[in-house]
Amino acid sequence: MTNPAATGPAPLVPPVDEPYALFRVTGRVAVVTGASSGIGAHTARLLGASGAKVALAARRTAPLTALSEELPGSLAVRCDVTLAEDRERLVRTVTEELGPIDILINNAGLSETVPAERQAVESFASIVAVNLTAVFALSQAIGTGMLERGHGSIVNIASVYGTVASGSLPQAAYTASKGGVVNLTRQLAAEWGARGVRVNALCPGWFWSEMTEPMLGTDKGRAWVERRTPMRRVGRLDELSGALLFLASDASSYVTGASIPVDGGYLAL
Asked: Which member of 44, 67, 187, 268 has the greatest number of CB atoms within 10 A?
């Protein structure tokens, strides 16, 4: 009797003496948004150290330029992801300078801590524009080229708050937008999977970054987070590296539509 699995594509199995070969992204072109600090800057360094040619995109020029000087072969492109002309210039510049884009890390994001009944609708909309609408728009702009070539990996940086509410921490716009990112990830994966483009999400818990400094920089805020996290501590940026590289590389070649939490157990409670 024929084994159905035998008729499928050959598995990507690295040589025994190279167990980490599938995690390599040598020579691939990666775009990282929100690369001027935090998770974005860490991701850019990680992909660069793993062999990728990295395009750094963010609104703030000075930290972007400094990071580019640190990473050989990288490219810094000032970009406001909410502006169509900036997205078009980003894709055009990266393609001309580095080549076709293989990896997209949608990391740019905003948050605001304010009670829902007092949040301005305009503020809510601006956060959704960065955290969700721009993720779709840039995925579309770069994903089109990936679909034409038949391969590519898109990693959307969502949040544990794309899965659960933030409780007493009032962040309606942030949680709504990240919930949208999680389901957008599933939808794009469903539409593009058969054409070689994988779309996944990473859902970090609480990590030290410029965005989380107002909360984690106080004893009260840090204690609030630690009480709600089974590991009783805040995450280090390097603890995102394994999941990030897994999703960006061929190590996750049969993974799409997934949302992977890296949260110290936060979602277990």
From this structure: 44
